[in-house]
Amino acid sequence: MQTHYSDLLVIGAGLAGERVACEAAQNGFKATCLSIVPARRSHSSAAQGGMQAALGNCAKGDGDCPDVHFIDTVKGSDWGCDQEVARLFADTAPIEMRRLAHWGVPWNRVVPGKSTFFKGGEKFEKYEKDENEGLITARSFGGTAKWRTCYTSDGTGHAVMCTMDNRCAELGIDVFDKKEAVSLIHDGETCTGAVVRCLRTGELEVFLAKATAICTGGFGRIYKATTNAVICDGGGHIIAHDTGVVPIGNPEAIQFHPTGIVPTDILVTEGCRGDGGTLLDVNEERFMNIYEPDKAELASRDVVSRWMTHHMRQGKGVKSPYGEHLWLDIRHLGNEHISTKLREVDEICHHFLGVDPRHELIPVRPTQHYTMAGIRTDKDGSAYGLKGLFSAGEAACWDMHGFNRLGGNSLAETVVAGGIIGAKIVEFLKGYETTFNTQTINQAVIKQRERIDNLIRGKNGRLNVYEVRNEMQEALMKGCFVFRNQQGLEECVETLQGTLDKAKRVGLVSDGTGPNYELAAALKIKGQVRLALCIAQAALQRTESRGSHNREDYPERNDKDWLNRTLAYWPENADMPELSYEDTTAKFEIPPGDRGYGGGTIIPADEGYVRERTVESPVNELGTKK
Amino acid sequence: MGRQLEFEIFRFNPQKQGDVPRMQTYVLEETTNMTLFIALNRLREEQDPSLVFDFCCRAGICGACAMVINGRPGLACQTKTKDQPGKITLHPLPVFKLVGDLAVDTGVWFREMYDKTESWVHTSRTFDPAAQEERMDNAVAEQIYELERCIECGCCVSACGTARLRDDFMGAAALNRIARFVVDPRDQRTDSDYFEIIGNDNGIFGCMGLLACEDVCPKGLPLQNQLGFLRRKMGITAIKEIFRK
């Protein structure tokens, strides 16, 4: 048995994971990163649009500051976020963007003078100041008051990922790819590393560490239609959840992106709409300007997805062999803009649709996109339930996004949270000692070896893992998508309970030797169905509509009863998750109010409750800067 | 009813005792808008779960799924079956170590490349969190990004005549990486620093100028221009070095 030791083990080498590792390495600790794929293939690299940070350098970002970014984030979350965390994030983001520039990110920069831009299909002019020439510029994104999204053409995630991975190489951090953590090593109180399956050889290895950080991204792949990469399958969540002591925060908070292409569900960036692209219906007419006169196509994602679904239900969808969809129109942006600023979009249309977006419309519909849900941590990134376990990025519910995250806030979160939580891990590691119990380690390894043997030998059954997975994916699409209601959710829970039973009786068709993918899928299936059940059960219990969680039978946002966060635990041998609830936020800088878009009514929270928790702030109760 | 596509796929599991490399044939009915991502996953899920191949983003942006498709390296996820003949032959990329069937080990190869090229900004400046960012011309930023678009899929290396002959040749991906830092004003390395890394037979002077690298690059990177640019720059550096001595 090969055994590795480091001060910090980071599971997942995307932007959040590598940023955490860099912080530890810069402070003299030995950090090791594990990844299923070579680090640069991480899903972080697929984020095209950009990172939100209130630098305020560009003309349309004039007057921007972290306070305004904070306000946008809280409103975007539909008051579901932890305001202390959102504040920490907004204040730190500009510094982190500058740090990335120092490390090598080729941010697009301010070009002084007159230029034109589109909004809602109309052309406007803007003037960039001479004195800001060469500073980091920004573009427009949904749900923000200012142009705040820092970008590198249409490959922001890719460019930042390259720089971060370069930084890891420079610092000499071991980044091992084709390694998948299949279990944490813990004694119910302290986490001391992970059991890892090598995806080259199929062998099990042990990685011991004083601190372990899970930074494995989202779990969109448990849905049938998702923009996520195939690696975003919940592997990190499953090993944390499986301990029985670490909860998933707000499992019902799942975001759907308005513009996944039909049929492959590949995302086309929000930048399309930010740059002036419009949404059209079957009659090739705009409709978002009717539902949202102010923000139109640039309302937050949950709102746009909801109105799109609503509009299709009104019979305005375009029929296709793959179901109904709507159109995204970027034709008026012109060849030069599409060829440079939206090149990835152009390539996606060409390679996967055979469509030329200069002359043709792009078929789109809402698709699962982001999990605000995640491993619940405190504001230091320390996971609930296990000492020495941390989480950052999309994998975590840190919780700056609440029930809806803004475009450009998640990519920024990876590095901002990575830096903040990395620093907290450094604090934790200083002077911290632990003991590695060989019995605990061996038991963890034996348990995984038994699971693998049982799957190969079909000890518990011979059900096909892909069929079971499909059943789970379909159930979520049916019951836990953009709109939800009691009947649909009850059916979903019932179906998934049956699926969970089947997941326990999966066995391999192949022999499972070496780099076998069927085995990798089979090792995860039970944990995935549990995550699906957490979503369905939490969505059923939450009898209100907030952000991306839309209950048709409870359309109000109910601050009186539901200003809280779901914590879903899965005790050992239980058949259903155990749900408990905690306060959304310890402090309000902005007391709960109206987002200003999305419509809907609010059942107000108890005044005393809000007053007790409201603190002095540079922003006032209307959510504007004082 | 769609075409009956015939897939001839390279099979070998190095971890399985007694396994021998061979070609195996599968038949699958073509559907609308089918890509090799859709086809291969259906083969694995419906016909043969032992098939090994890599996909990640399945959107042409991560580079995980490069393989030799009917004799030509390319990304499987953005290969539409309708552009291919009825018989599709798939091999793993050459040059890279085989993991199994169609999956190869690009991870280790590229991490070694980062070390060889010292793939990071070399600067004596330290970061000041309180200071405004250093200014950069937007055109320069776009020029850097243009070369940073490499997704490390390995197609250029596996199509390279020199890399096929010699293990120690750095390949277009590594040379392009150097070019990326040459245009970056933040990197304080000089031409002679770069010469130390690529001014030899393993580097820019090993290139035979066949330029298959550019032909197969799925991102359309200007590799031909970059190789020419570096060869000229390093040639001049070499001459200067001679006269200095």
Query: Which regions of chain A are unreliable across 5 or more consecutive residues at pLDDT < 50?
Result: none
Largest interface: A-B, 72 and 67 residues
Instruction: Tell me, rounded to a whole number, the average pLDDT of chain A.
Output: 95
Question: How helical, in percent, are the residues of chain B?
Answer: 25-40%
| Derived structural class of chain A | alpha/beta
Question: How many strand elements of chain B?
Answer: 7
Please outline the helices and strands.
The complex is a heterodimer of chains A (626) and B (245).
Chain A: E1 2-11, H1 15-26, E2 31-35, E3 51-52, H2 66-76, H3 83-103, E4 113-119, E5 122-128, E6 149-150, H4 156-171, E7 174-177, E8 179-186, E9 191-198, E10 204-214, H5 235-241, E11 248-249, E12 254-261, H6 271-274, E13 278-280, H7 288-291, H8 301-316, E14 326-329, H9 334-340, H10 343-353, E15 362-371, E16 374-376, E17 389-391, E18 396-397, H11 409-429, H12 438-457, H13 465-479, E19 483-484, H14 486-503, H15 517-541, E20 550-551, E21 557-558, H16 559-562, E22 564-569, E23 578-583, E24 602-603, H17 607-613
Parallel strand pairs in A: 1-2, 1-10, 2-7, 10-17, 16-18, 19-20, 21-24
Antiparallel strand pairs in A: 3-6, 4-5, 8-9, 9-10, 11-16, 11-22, 12-15, 13-14, 14-15, 22-23
Helix pairs in contact in A: 1-4, 1-11, 2-3, 3-11, 5-15, 13-14, 13-15, 14-15
Chain B: E1 4-11, E2 22-29, H1 36-47, E3 66-69, E4 72-75, E5 87-91, E6 97-100, E7 103-105, H2 106-117, H3 138-148, H4 155-158, H5 161-165, H6 171-182, H7 191-198, H8 212-216, H9 223-244
Parallel strand pairs in B: 1-5
Antiparallel strand pairs in B: 1-2, 3-4, 3-5, 6-7
Helix pairs in contact in B: 3-6, 6-9, 7-9
